[in-house]
Design a protein that fits this description.
Blueprint: E1 5-14, E2 17-23, E3 32-33, E4 36-38, H1 45-57, E5 59-74, E6 77-91, E7 99-106, H2 107-110, H3 117-127, E8 134-139
Parallel strand pairs: 1-6, 5-8
Antiparallel strand pairs: 1-2, 1-4, 2-3, 2-7, 5-6
């Protein structure tokens, strides 16, 4: 890889819970994370959020607000991830594609899961009241 990959994430709230998927592939294989994935060449960010969310969760969403920017250097990858707060518009929750499972969790439940540090930090910052987009970087060798 000679340049960073751009990815998107879909943050879907249900009351005081947020939807996470259990990743089946690297990076963060077998960890719980925000649904999402790589943006395809020529694809708009909004369309990538909708496509990736539908592929992994069976849910149709509408991206509303940029929540955070995550930069990850891990497992031979360099990702720049734009996580959007999304409104659920339809569909039925069912893990598929790169997701082994998909469930809603409260913040206290998330703290007990095998979840990436960037996912946890982003959600904790949001629930503390940070509403402007922020950047979180994870570097792992």
């Amino acid at each position: 890889m000679d340049r960073p990959l751009v990815a998107v994430g879909s943050v879907i709230f249900n009351g005081d819970s947020v939807l996470l998927i259990r990743r089946l592939h690297p990076p963060n294989q077998y960890k719980w994370a925000i649904p999402g994935g790589k943006v395809e060449l020529g694809e708009r960010l909004r369309d990538a959020v909708i496509r990736e969310t539908l592929e992994e969760t069976g849910l149709l969403v509408e991206p509303r607000t940029l929540m955070g920017i995550i930069e990850v250097f891990k497992e031979g990858y360099h990702y720049v991830i734009l996580d959007f707060i999304c409104e659920k518009k339809g569909g039925e929750l069912k893990a598929s594609s790169d997701a082994g499972d998909a469930k809603y969790f409260t913040l206290n439940e998330i703290r007990k899961l095998n979840v990436s540090s960037t996912t946890l930090e982003m959600l904790e910052r949001f629930w503390r009241g940070e509403k402007m987009p922020f950047m979180i970087t994870e570097i792992s060798k």
